[in-house]
């Protein structure tokens, strides 16, 4: 479970990015975070990754209080989180297989485990036949599938996606969303930041809307809304 208790963030320049945010995300939930530019969405994701510290308040992820986490635990903590970005961030000089395998090598996985898990993951994202392709030989949707495979290969408990379809057309965007939904059904908690109202409308998931650093609505699948 992810819990934010009265979380605020004021950047050095005096920008109030988050103002007294309270929210919880249960294990296995699928949540969209929407809101106009500058409303604090990326700041929130960066806090979950422990890249940005709150100015006040408490963040607890799977019973771990991030504010009290010793520095040496941070790399291990981050392995519980998978991250997907708008611009894919693949290694351009490595093929699809190597891009995914690399994430396993970094954590010291055995060659045997890599040889088992990478093909299985590529199958899941529908890229088995393109494992030797390089990123520039793939469509945007395919590149994002590789990025998703890489984010999932170490079996994170939570997948954070920051505008994962920002560079994709409507069809590819929905395909990526369906893939994220499948991943979620297998048990991973999924949090997606998006600007796309169409995606949010079609997916019928929980939607947290932010505005100027606050949560202005939190709408469940069933459709009820409450003000924070
Ligand atoms: N490193 C920083 N230093 C100072 N101010 C920052 C920093 N990062 C973000 N901000 C400010 O914090 C506020 C929230 O920014 P944030 O990036 O979280 O918004 P966002 O909702 O993700 O926006 P976008 O949709 O454009 O990505 C903005 O006013 C922004 O200018």
Describe the structure.
The protein has 228 residues and is an alpha/beta fold. It folds into 2 domains: 110 residues, Rossmann fold (3-Layer(aba) Sandwich), CATH 3.40.50; 66 residues, no CATH class. Helices cover 32% and strands 26% of the residues. It contains 7 helices and 10 strands. The protein has a 6-stranded mixed beta sheet with strand order 6-7-8-3-9-10, with helices on both faces. It has a 4-stranded antiparallel beta sheet with strand order 2-1-4-5, with helices on one face. α4 packs across α5. The longest helix has 16 residues. The protein is globular and about 45 Å long. The chain starts with a strand and ends in a 9-residue tail after the last strand. The C terminus is likely disordered.
Quick description:
This protein is of the alpha/beta class. It is 32% helix and 26% strand.
Q: Which CATH class of the largest domain?
A: Alpha Beta
Heteromolecules bound: adenosine-5'-triphosphate
Q: How many helices?
A: 7
**Uncertain residue ranges:** 223-228
CATH topology-level fold name of the largest domain: Rossmann fold
Q: Strand portion, in percent? A: 25-35%
| Percent of residues in helices | 25-40%
CA distance, first residue to last residue: 19 Å
Global geometry: globular
Q: Element order, helices and strands?
A: EEEHEEHEHHHEHEHEE
Structural class: alpha/beta
From the 3D coordinates, which CATH architecture of the largest domain would you assign?
Answer: 3-Layer(aba) Sandwich
Protein name: Cell division ATP-binding protein FtsE
GO molecular function: ATP binding; ATP hydrolysis activity; transmembrane transporter activity
Keywords: ATP-binding, Cell cycle, Cell division, Cell membrane, Membrane, Nucleotide-binding
GO biological process, one term: cell division
């Amino acid at each position: 479970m992810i819990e934010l208790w009265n979380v605020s963030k004021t950047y050095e320049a005096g920008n109030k990015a988050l103002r007294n945010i309270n929210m919880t995300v249960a294990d296995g939930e699928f949540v969209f975070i929407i809101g106009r530019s500058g409303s604090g969405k990326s700041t929130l994701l960066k806090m979950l990754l422990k890249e940005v510290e709150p100015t006040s308040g408490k963040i607890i992820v799977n019973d771990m209080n991030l504010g009290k986490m010793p520095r040496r635990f941070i790399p291990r903590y981050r392995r519980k989180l998978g991250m997907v970005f708008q611009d894919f961030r693949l290694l351009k000089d490595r093929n699809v297989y190597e891009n995914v395998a690399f994430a396993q090598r970094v954590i010291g996985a055995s060659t045997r485990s890599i040889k088992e898990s990478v093909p299985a993951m590529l199958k899941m994202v529908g890229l088995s036949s393109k494992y030797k392709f390089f990123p520039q030989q793939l469509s945007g949707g395919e590149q994002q599938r590789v990025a998703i495979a890489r984010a999932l290969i170490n079996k994170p408990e939570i997948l954070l996606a920051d505008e994962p379809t920002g560079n994709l057309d409507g069809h590819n965007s929905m395909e990526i969303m369906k893939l994220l939904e499948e991943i979620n059904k297998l048990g991973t908690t999924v949090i997606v930041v998006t600007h796309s109202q169409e995606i949010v409308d079609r997916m019928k998931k929980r939607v947290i809307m932010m505005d100027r650093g606050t949560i202005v609505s939190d709408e469940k699948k069933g459709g009820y809304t409450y003000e924070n």
